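Reproducibility note. Readers wishing to regenerate the assembly model reported in the main text can use the exact inputs given here. Chain order matters: entities are listed in the order in which they were concatenated for prediction.
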Amino acid sequence: MSVTFGDFVAIRGASVCLSGHQVTGLAGVNGAGKTTLIHALMGLTPPSAGRVYSSNGLRSVAYCPDTPAFEPWLDASEVLEQSLAVARSDRSVHSSHEGRAMVLKRVGLAEVGRRRVGGFSRGMKQRLGIAAAVVLDPEILILDEPTSALDPLGREDVLGLISELGRAMHVVFSSHLLDDIEKVANSLIVLDRGEVVFTGLLSDFVNAPAAQLAITVGGDVRLLLAAFEARGIGCSVDPGAPGTLCVPESLRHRVFEVLAAHPDQIRSVESSQESLQSAFVRLIRARAADGDDT
Amino acid sequence: MIHFEARRWTRSRRLVIVCAAFAFAGMSAPLVAAYAEQILGAVQPSSNVSILVEDPTWRDGIASYLQNAAQLSLLVACYVVAWACALGSDERLQIFYRSRATQRWHLFLPRLIMSGLCVCVAASLGGLLAFYEVMVLFDGNDPARMLLVLTVQSTGLVTVALLAGLGAVLTNAPVVSALTTYFVVFFLDLFRDVSIVSDWTPIALLRPEPLLEQSPMSDYLRPGLAALALLAVTTSIALTRPVRATPHVNRSDR
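Running the prediction on these inputs yields the following structure tokens for the assembly.
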């Protein structure tokens, strides 16, 4: 799918496949095109090329924007009822009064089900937005920045909910907060300047070649450094912790052979698995450098 | 969906506003007609000037209401209906509707139906108030003719208000739609004595004063058909456009 605004290409040939029950994180810097891609998928922004294939047409997909809004003269339960009515999802498992009450309970709004939403806080509206999408019982649920307006406790609750929903449907979860994505997502889509630059398992993304072993040395660092260099293992001293050596995890067999020969020098060995944040920054910076070179 | 639209009209006080606009016309217009001589006498510039006013009849009482209802009350109705039919300027609320609806008519038809019903209720209220006052204030009334005239005007009021609503559905610009509709009606009303306007536009329905003078009901058949045709064409244009921009294809059809 491609989306252009005049001469500006917002999305360039993005192709994603969403299937099964899981949570997919959609990551990208500001202006990368996350919301544009979501809007194009939902049919809210016209694409310049492309189409969406789904098992049940438009009804397969439900969407909650980052700052959802509702008719202020409805109460929370009525908003869910209206959501079902507009989507004509009469056969949703949540279409009964009890079903709607259950969804409100899941997002922590059971107590205010009969309160007019005009007086809701931004965080409450965000929870209600998720409920209004979940009530449709979609195959794919797209949440745009679902935790952006929530306090730390609310954020934990919603992340737990997303994780739970991911067992019953495919949840696509866009966020600037990569820690949140890392906590709940199984797979990942990374957008950069309108292009999908990674799509796959989150573990594949963070275990990319740069994963390292951090060896905390009890004795002389130079001794171990020389031993690694003698075996042709490139290593470096962690600038933030001079007593720690960093070696590529991909060479772990040879690294442990060296360590076995110097057991007295070792205090700890940790797999410093790259965080999503650092892997993301590394990828985006590398692409930016490539772009500058060309 | 229709019950949500009923809530939109009742809970957001739209119905109260439109009813108040017509009720005010219904209460004030026959009174002004009945006491025109006294009102003008009270404001006459000097004792040397005397204003002669013909004794008002029940026809003047109803005609006064018809005029008021087709002016300020209609403007209020157009404005309120246009806002009730448009998705509005809040993009987040637009997303709520557009990310759920699969057919445009499903989103807007209940809004139009409820708007038509509410304007009908308000116009009927105003008409009944005017009818009651005319019955009380004037002698020699023709109740059946009065009710017929009021019914014809209510049809015209509902038609024009719905056209304002359909304009808002098409443009999502309720103020522009309401004002445009109102001023087109106002402009055509200036030419209501031109036969093509009186015969082939809904304007004749808005101002059916000739019907008070025993003109035949058949004179209103063509304007009625023109109103129906206009509504049908505008409705089909407004409600058949696709609601989503991206083609969604069922995987089985691939």
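We highlight two features of this model. Chain B touches chain A at residues 1, 4, 7-8, 11-12, 90, 92-93, 95-102, 106-107, 243-252, 254 (CB under 8 Å). Chain B is about 75% helix and 0% strand.
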